[in-house]
Design a protein that fits this description.
The complex is a heterodimer of chains A (173) and B (122). With 173 residues, chain A is of the alpha/beta class. Chain A is globular and about 50 Å long. With 122 residues, chain B is mainly α. Chain B folds into 2 domains: 81 residues, no CATH class; 32 residues. In chain B, 47% of the residues lie in helices and 11% in strands. Classes of the chains: A alpha/beta (173), B mainly alpha (122). Chains A and B meet through helix 1, helix 2, helix 3, helix 4 and strand 7 of A and helix 1, strand 1, helix 2, helix 3 and helix 4 of B. Strand 7 of chain A pairs parallel with strand 1 of chain B.
C-alpha cells in the first residue's frame, strides 16, 4: 500500500478505535469504556456574549509556576478534583503537566494552544465578551465517569454559580 | 470533560467544547462541539499562532450564538501546518503515546489511584 503524501488530506483520527487497538497490543486486555450517550442537554444563551461572564475549564493539568499546589503529587491527580486558576494569571506563568498529548507533533510550550487565556482577555478588551470570571477551572481526570458525574461536575457547577458564570468554554487537551 | 459540559448545560449554563478528539466527544454527546482537526495538545490553534487561536475562539463564540440544538458539531476547517503524517503515526509502535518517563508518570498515577481505592480513600 502506498502511503499518502505527507500533506494529503486524511480523515480525522478515530481515537476510540485507535487507542483500543494500541492498548490491546500493549497487553491491556480490558478496553477503556468511553462515555456514550444518545442525547445531550441544551441551554441557549440568555444574554449577549458582550454582556456575559465567561470561564475556561480545562483538563490539560494546567498549572501555575511556583505555586505549591502543583508540586508533584501523583495522588492528587489520581484522586481527580477541581482546582482554580485565577484568570489574572499571566500566560507566562502557566504550564501544563499533562502527558496525554501528541509529543511528536506539537509542544505544550504555548499555553494558549490549549488554555487560551490571553485570547479570551483580548476578546474582552475588544468588547466581544463581557468579562472573564475571577477564576478559570482545572479538572483532573478522575479515571471514573461516576466520579466525574457525581463529584467533579457538581463541584464545577457550584464554582461557576458562585462566580456568576454565564457561559463556559471547555477544552480537553 | 464532556460529562462536565453536560452537567453545566443541564443546570442552565451554556457550554462549548473545543476539542481534537471528535469521536470521543461525540460519543459522550455534548451540546456544542467545535472540532479542530489538530494533534492532541493543540485544540485551540497551533502554538504561538495567536491569530489562529483567536479565530478558533471566535468560531466557538459563534456556535454559542447560533447553535439551536444539542449535539451540534462544527468543523473548524483548519489544516495543521506541518502536514498530516501525525494522523498516521499517533498510537503506533513507531511513536508510542507515553514513552519512557511519560509512561512511568502515567503508571504512578494509576497505581496511586488503585492504592487509594483499595484503602477506601476515594
Amino acid at each position: 500500500m502506498t502511503e499518502p503524501a505527507p500533506d494529503a488530506a486524511r480523515p480525522y483520527v478515530r481515537y476510540i478505535d485507535k487507542t483500543r487497538a494500541y492498548y490491546l497490543s500493549q497487553g491491556y486486555e480490558k478496553p477503556y469504556a468511553w462515555a456514550n450517550n444518545a442525547s445531550a442537554p441544551f441551554t441557549p444563551l440568555s444574554k449577549p456574549l458582550s454582556a456575559s461572564t465567561v470561564t475556561l475549564i480545562s483538563t490539560s493539568e494546567i498549572a501555575i509556576k511556583g505555586d505549591p499546589r502543583f508540586d508533584d503529587d501523583p495522588e492528587t491527580r489520581a484522586k481527580g478534583n477541581v482546582y482554580d486558576v485565577p484568570s489574572a494569571t499571566p500566560a507566562a506563568m502557566l504550564y501544563s503537566r499533562t502527558q496525554s498529548y501528541d509529543r511528536y507533533a506539537t509542544t505544550l510550550d504555548d499555553p494558549n494552544a490549549y488554555f487560551p487565556l490571553d485570547r479570551l482577555h483580548e476578546a474582552v478588551a475588544r468588547g466581544r465578551l463581557g468579562k472573564i470570571a475571577g477564576n478559570c477551572l482545572g479538572v483532573y481526570n478522575a479515571y471514573s465517569q461516576r466520579k466525574t458525574v457525581e463529584r467533579d461536575a457538581p463541584e464545577v457547577l457550584g464554582q461557576c454559580r458562585a462566580m456568576g458564570v454565564d457561559v463556559a468554554i471547555l477544552v480537553p487537551v | 470533560m464532556s460529562l462536565v459540559a453536560r452537567h453545566l448545560e443541564e443546570n442552565g449554563i451554556p457550554t462549548v467544547v473545543i476539542a481534537t478528539a471528535r469521536d470521543i466527544v461525540e460519543s459522550a454527546a455534548v451540546p456544542r462541539l467545535l472540532f479542530v482537526d489538530f494533534p492532541l495538545g493543540a485544540p485551540c490553534g497551533e502554538p504561538w499562532n495567536a491569530g489562529q487561536q483567536s479565530a478558533v475562539l471566535e468560531m466557538a463564540f459563534r456556535m454559542l450564538e447560533t447553535a439551536s440544538a444539542p449535539r451540534t458539531t462544527v468543523e473548524a476547517g483548519l489544516r495543521w501546518s506541518k502536514g498530516q503524517r501525525w494522523k498516521d503515526l499517533i498510537f503506533t509502535e513507531e511513536q508510542p503515546f507515553l514513552p519512557g518517563e511519560a509512561g512511568e508518570e502515567w503508571l504512578k498515577k494509576k497505581e496511586a489511584y488503585r492504592r487509594m481505592k483499595a484503602e477506601g480513600r476515594i
